[in-house]
From TrEMBL:
The protein's name: Xaa-Pro aminopeptidase 1 isoform X3
Source domain of life: Eukaryota
Residue ranges of domain Peptidase M24 in the record: 400-617
Gene Ontology cellular component terms for the protein in this record: cytoplasm
Signal peptide start and end residues: 1-20
Gene3D superfamilies (alphabetical): Creatinase/methionine aminopeptidase superfamily, Creatinase/prolidase N-terminal domain
UniProt keyword list: Aminopeptidase, Hydrolase, Metal-binding, Protease, Signal
Species for this entry: Lingula anatina
Pfam families named in the record: Creatinase_N, Creatinase_N_2, Peptidase_M24, Peptidase_M24_C
Record region (Disordered): 34-76
Record-annotated membrane-spanning stretches: none
Single GO term (MF): metalloaminopeptidase activity
Positions of the Peptidase M24 C-terminal domain: 630-693
Comp. bias (Basic and acidic residues): 43-59
Length: 718
């Protein structure tokens, strides 16, 4: 349920950077401008904020006879219990409940779904604020309908981005008085969010305070709360990771020395998994284990729960640690394993006023981590692991290409079978049954470790809902008249995949072909792009949009995201998001992998998205102005496009050549595998799609035919 739009970080990024998230920092400057320019209207607005009430919502109006949706959650007693804790919590008047876990993970374990528990709203983005007599939930446009249904009539639904909707601090400002206190768990709130809320409320003399007790944890009975995950942990062999954890620690220490730091505090779960060459199963679709790490000049500490004894003797050997995890009597590099709960107190102990060296933390750390030691001792900068992880080593690159071939083969085999059934009508498929069958095909592949996100399997109008994920209530049958958008991916020991293809099993309309072709042209344009090193994704994103823009079309999501090596399907840097300036961005570098996924969505009719994973490689240019390396992309996802959806006459020669080369490579690498495995149907499906097109497309053929006709006529005349 959390993973609804797993594949849509790109949209989340856009939403977080462009839309007004209630607590995002970019919002702050907007708010200042609003205050300066519209000072006179401010009082009236504040009164309106104060009067906002759950009865503004249709089903909650007094006398409403609308039936209560079955997914609505009665939160009356939960809210009562929460409010009862306010007096002991230094007399706070309101409490923030964010979506995040302590590691700022994209997806959180069920155990950490505090905002879902308190509000009943189960979407992946939102912030709840509870005062002594009101409760409000902020979420963005993807979730208005879902929130309206799930929130009971204790809640005000704050529709972010709609006019007249206050930010959380504006709302609190209208309700509270000078000297009042607002509480939040500093372990769950990112540094920026905390500081933005704190600064905005300063004007009103309202303070934000933290307390090591989480109020939702206090009221959530163990009997109702999913347990702390404690999933199994496996060792990732260097035949897949390409580098031992010891070498990674050595590299990190060099980066730490360059920045004059004495310790690195590691918060992100994909970073601890990468660092120790371990993979877990605490979070759906992500091979992570809930943990922290501290790397210092002379020791390495690793914090995680061992309640289920998952730290096996094998892992102790892998980490060169004693079975007690304490490194005593060990010579050489060893990982000290400590209880998860000790991480923040150990961070506090890094406070060393005598040292000139700082402690390196990521800007994505929680405010609790940041405030553990004096700000003067903190270097708040992108974790050095981010870049080391994003630039894959040679072993990872090779593994990546191999897993993409297997994954492409699985998808092709599935699509060949699906098309045959849908066209012949011999078997009825729907969005859900198709997604689960595809999962079976993936799971049969070597090294498969499950899916990398919840499959987006969308027929017709469902494809136009960007965050769509099939559910029994919306499930549609596959037909020969509607488009089918399929966005899916797998986890493999040697890599992570994410691929989208859009299909039509009958005769598509002109508009469908126009949309498909323009999206394809955009994908090809970006894939062919050559740029000097140092370029950011946002600077070349428009190449993918140009064929849509020229037709007055566009799409409301980013064009690409980095992807992990048996880690998260979304990782940064790099990101390719037009106009989005995010601290998480970084320039493209050779050896990074990312998606290229433009789309077009015709509301209530269909959606088109084409997503291919590419590797950043050195380009062959005649010059290298500025002594720079010039870079380009090499596709590694190898699934052919739909020939009958392409209007070849729209493609220029270079685009056609790219398509021809791509299809030849699909045949060469995946076709071969299918043929060798005797998968005749799948091989034939491919063959029908990889026909080489002459470089001026249909137009060229027509001209040739005309010329031939003329020659015949002329020769007859002569
Ligand atoms: C919600 O639960 C409370 C008791 O906790 C009950 O009094 C109330 O009637 C319930 N509300 C609805 C709408 O069912
Ligand atoms: C934190 O809040 C809880 C719950 O209100 C309270 O019991 C506890 O004493 C508070 N702790 C501190 C250090 O104020
Ligand atoms: C790693 O893989 C190599 C080659 O397959 C194998 O020989 C070795 O035993 C593996 N190591 C571990 C710890 O599994
Ligand atoms: C983890 O738990 C197992 C089983 O209880 C135990 O044998 C092992 O020593 C523990 N490891 C650490 C590092 O605590
Ligand atoms: C850090 O240590 C100094 C000196 O021991 C102390 O005065 C200060 O309060 C500590 N800071 C924090 C945030 O714990
Ligand atoms: C989907 O197909 C099933 C099985 O043929 C059929 O029972 C059902 O009515 C179809 N649903 C729709 C919405 O057409
Ligand atoms: C580029 O590199 C060449 C050879 O290393 C050097 O001679 C030249 O000065 C450099 N040019 C610039 C602009 O740095
Ligand atoms: Mn993607």
């Amino acid at each position: 349920m959390k993973i609804l739009e797993a594949c849509f970080l790109v949209i989340v990024i856009t939403a977080a950077t462009v839309n007004s998230s209630p607590i995002a920092d970019h919002d702050l400057s907007n708010e200042k401008n609003v205050h300066r320019n519209h000072h006179r209207t401010r009082r009236a607005t504040e009164n309106e904020y104060r009067r906002m009430s759950p009865s503004d919502r249709p089903k909650c109006k007094s006398g409403s006879t609308m039936p209560r949706p079955p997914n609505e959650v009665n939160t009356t007693s939960r809210l009562q219990k929460l409010r009862a804790l306010f007096p002991a919590y230094d007399g706070i008047k309101a409490y923030y409940i964010p979506t995040e876990d302590a590691h700022q993970s994209e997806y959180v374990a069920a155990h950490d779904e505090r905002r879902v528990y308190i509000s009943g709203f189960s979407g992946s983005a939102g912030t709840a604020v509870v005062t002594e007599d009101k409760a409000a939930l902020w979420t963005d446009g993807r979730y208005f309908l879902q929130a309206e249904a799930e929130l009971d009539c204790n809640w005000i639904l704050m529709k972010q981005g709609e006019t007249g909707v206050p930010s959380s601090t504006e709302w609190l400002g209208s309700l509270l008085s000078a000297g009042d206190k607002v509480g939040a768990n500093p372990t769950l709130m990112p540094i920026d969010s905390w500081q933005v809320i704190e600064n905005r409320m300063k004007d009103k003399s309202i303070s934000l305070i933290g307390n090591s007790t989480d109020l939702v944890d206090e009221i959530w009975p163990d009997s109702e709360r999913p347990a702390f995950p404690n999933g199994d942990i496996i060792i990732l062999n260097t035949t897949f990771s390409g580098k031992s954890w010891k070498d990674k620690v050595t590299e990190l220490r060099k980066k730490m020395a360059d920045k004059n730091t004495r310790a690195l505090f590691v918060t992100a779960l994909d970073e601890t998994a990468w660092l120790f060459n371990l993979r877990g199963s605490d979070i759906a679709y992500n091979p992570f284990f809930i943990s922290y790490a501290i790397v210092e000049e002379n020791n390495v500490r690793f914090y995680l729960s061992n309640k289920t004894g998952r730290l096996t003797p094998k892992i102790a050997v892998h980490l060169s640690t004693g079975t007690t995890g304490d490194c005593s009597g060990k010579t050489g590099i060893c990982v000290q394993v400590k209880p998860y709960e000790d991480a923040l107190s150990d961070m506090k102990n890094l406070n060393d006023t005598s040292s000139t060296k700082k402690v390196w933390i990521s800007p994505a750390s929680s405010y609790a981590v940041y405030s553990s030691i004096p700000a003067s001792q903190v270097l708040k900068e992108r974790s050095p692991i981010q870049l080391l992880k994003a630039v894959k080593n040679q072993v990872e690159r090779d593994g990546y290409e191999r897993c993409q071939i297997r994954d492409s083969a699985a998808l092709i085999e599935f699509l060949a079978m699906l098309e045959k059934d849908v066209k012949s009508g011999s078997k009825q498929w729907n969005e859900i049954s198709a997604a689960s069958k595809l999962e079976e095909y993936r799971r049969m592949q070597q090294y498969n470790m499950g899916l990398s996100f919840n499959t987006i399997s969308a027929v017709g109008s469902n494809g136009a809902v960007i965050h769509y994920s099939p559910a029994p209530s919306t499930n549609k049958n596959l037909t020969t008249t509607e488009m089918y958008l399929l966005d899916s991916g797998g986890q493999y020991l040697d890599g992570t995949t994410d691929v989208t293809r859009t299909l039509h099993f009958g005769t598509p309309t002109e508009e469908m072909k126009q949309a498909y072709t323009r999206v394809l042209m955009g994908a090809i344009n970006l894939a062919m792009m050559i740029w000097p090193e140092g370029t950011y994704g946002r600077e070349i994103d428009s190449a993918a949009r140009a064929p849509l823009w020229s037709y007055g079309w566009n799409y409301r999501h980013g064009t690409g995201h980095g992807i992990g090596a048996f880690l998260s399907v979304h990782e940064g840097p790099p990101y390719t998001v037009y106009k989005a300036y995010s601290v998480r961005d970084g320039p493209f570098a050779a050896g990074m992998f990312l998606s290229i996924e433009p789309g077009y969505y015709e509301p209530d009719q269909f959606g088109v998205r084409l997503e291919t994973i590419v590797m950043v490689v050195k380009a062959n240019t005649p010059n290298n102005f500025g002594n720079k390396t010039y870079l380009t992309f090499k596709p590694v996802t190898l699934v052919p496009f739909e020939t009958h959806l392409i209007k070849y006459d729209l493609l220029d020669d270079k685009q056609t050549k790219w398509l021809n080369d791509y299809h030849a490579e699909c045949m060469e690498k995946v076709g071969k595998v299918l043929q060798a495995a005797g998968k005749t149907e799948a091989y034939k499906w491919m063959e029908a799609r990889v026909q080489q097109i002459s470089t001026s497309g249909q137009a060229f053929l027509t001209a040739n035919m005309l010329l031939a006709f003329c020659l015949v006529v002329i020769s007859r005349v002569l």
